[in-house]
Design a protein that fits this description.
Helices cover about 75% and strands about 0% of the residues. The chain has helices at about 10-30, 35-70, 70-105, 120-130, 135-140, 145-155, 155-170, 180-200, 200-215, 225-250, 255-260, 265-270, 275-290, 295-305, 310-325, 330-345, 355-365, 380-405, 410-425. The longest helix is centred in the N-terminal third of the chain and has 37 residues, at about 35-70. It is a multi-pass membrane protein.
Length: about 425
């Protein structure tokens, strides 16, 4: 008797099918308000499901990881390395964006008056707030006055700060703390199980989010800004393959192997334009790949605030694009000032919806570009957001492996076993 073979499409392929169907549906239902409302509701529901489990995963994994680490000096060393690495990579990303913008001059070919304007009203208030935030404000906001308020608002950095302290406090109780540590460990396992269930809905969520984007703006919105869009994507690809690839090589990491391991999460973050959508699976996979729980639990969530490489590339490119479109010449000193402003402002925008767009709004006025100019690229912001989000996720995954290797907390045996499992699934 022959065994029956069941044909099963992998999640990655189902998400790609969802993207394709979303493009088709968006074209069919262009400017159809009823269809847009339905797709928007479907996409929002999926993102909300992901957001529902992000904080329980971050808190439970971080408490367990820090409690088991139990060494404040070691934590301080890991934290210092992590923030230094993040700042270095973000600076390189901004500098790369400025270099490419100066070489390709995407704004010089644009007639600013021929572009249709999008709405930026929803970002204006947040941008004004961001422009008033200095480094001191960012540091002061790290410490939460009310942890429950921070949890309800999803304010990641204050949550991480409190959770790290809680984990360290828990570690001081020795064996007495084991039941509570085990409880948090059980919570993390349950949350990862929920993640696997929710991820089965990813193709539907992706279909809806892509569909609503195309249905709202249409393919025609791309035409005047195709060159800028292509430059953005080529720069981000260069950053991942060449810049991140060289950094990975220094630490004996194969960047192509990492892309293969996290391909489903990269496709998901790309199609949803949401880093949070990929965070639970990245946290799970990075540990399966060989990174210790403590480092994975600290580096990945922190990176979602401090290591936004894709966003940094976009912000610097877009700022130069708009300056060129308005025929504003920027001196070397002005561009260096822009680099510093982007570095600081971007750190103050963690957790703000449309953060990259808000940062751009908050910084372009420092180089003389009218705030209204950002409206000219509002229509394609979602499409650029997809690419920069995927780069952000890739950058954080690489960071976790590098920090783990620097601390001798990367398990090569787990990595080999996990890669063998991936090959067996094919």
């Amino acid at each position: 008797m022959k065994k029956q073979r069941y044909f099963r499409i992998s999640l990655g392929w189902r998400i790609l099918i969802g993207i394709a169907l979303g493009l088709v549906a968006g074209g069919i239902f262009y400017q159809n308000k009823a269809a847009i409302a339905v797709m928007q509701a479907m996409g929002t529901l999926f993102i909300n499901l992901i957001k529902m489990i992000v904080l329980p995963i971050v808190v439970s994994c971080l408490v367990v990881g820090i409690a088991k680490m139990g060494d404040i000096k070691k934590l301080g060393r890991i934290g210092g390395k992590t923030l230094l690495y993040f700042e270095m990579m973000t600076t390189i990303a901004i500098a790369l964006g400025l270099t490419v913008g100066n070489l390709t001059k995407p704004g010089a070919l644009i007639n600013i008056h021929s572009l249709s304007q999008g709405s930026i009203g929803q970002y204006t208030a947040a941008a004004k707030s961001a422009s008033n935030h200095g480094l001191g404000d960012i540091i002061m906001n790290i410490v939460p006055t009310n942890i429950f308020k921070a949890l309800s608002e999803g304010d990641m950095i204050p949550i991480i700060f409190f959770t790290v302290l809680f984990g360290l406090g828990l570690a001081t109780f020795g064996k007495r703390s084991e039941p509570l540590i085990n409880a948090f460990e059980m919570i993390s396992e349950v949350m990862f199980k929920l993640t696997n269930w929710i991820m089965q809905l990813a193709p539907i969520g992706v279909f809806a989010l892509i569909g609503v984007t195309i249905a709202q703006f249409g393919f025609d919105a791309l035409k005047p800004l195709v060159y800028f869009l292509v430059i953005c994507y080529l720069t981000m690809i260069f950053f991942v393959v060449v810049v991140a690839g060289l950094v990975a090589r220094i630490w004996h990491i194969n960047i192509l192997e990492l892309l293969k391991v996290f391909k489903e999460e990269l496709v998901l973050s790309f199609s949803t334009a949401s880093s949070e959508a990929a965070l639970p699976k990245v946290m799970e996979k990075i540990q399966d790949y060989g990174v210790s729980q403590g480092i994975a639990s600290f580096v990945i969530p922190t990176g979602y605030t401090f290591n936004l490489d894709g966003s940094a590339i976009y912000q610097s490119l877009a700022a130069l694009f708009l300056a060129q479109a308005y025929h504003i010449h920027l001196s070397l000193m002005q561009q260096l000032t822009l680099l510093v402003v982007l570095m600081i402002t971007s750190k103050g925008m963690a957790g703000v919806p449309g953060a990259s767009f808000v940062v751009l709004l908050a910084t372009i006025t420092t180089i003389g570009v009218p705030a209204a100019g950002v409206a000219f690229i509002a229509g394609i912001d979602r499409l650029v957001d997809m690419g920069r989000t995927a780069v952000n996720v890739m950058g954080n995954s690489l960071a976790a492996v590098i920090i783990a290797k620097s601390e001798n907390e990367f398990d090569e045996t787990k990595r080999t076993k996990y890669l063998a499992q991936l090959s067996a699934k094919k």
